[in-house]
């Protein structure tokens, strides 16, 4: 009797989507996260592929940190077990410029 592994790896602690407000679009914003972990029912190691895609310049690392420009970046960790089963942890980092509207007769101090 042969058994086959048809269960994808389990994902633990996949980060949630995040929105980071900034006052201007001139600089990249640092952001850190705790990378997810994967385990498989076969107790074998899980191969993890990392991608980070964005429409604007950004830097991000599999270890859980990056610098993001205004826009949306999709961060993805794809775990593949020895039988080829795949599970994906994906989240977005959105950097958005916020506008502060102040009435003409008011002073705003930051």
UniProtKB/TrEMBL annotation:
Residues 4-97 form the HYR domain. Keywords: Repeat. The keyword Repeat applies. InterPro entries: HYR_dom (IPR003410). Pfam families: HYR. The keyword Repeat applies. It comes from Patiria miniata (Bat star). This is HYR domain-containing protein.
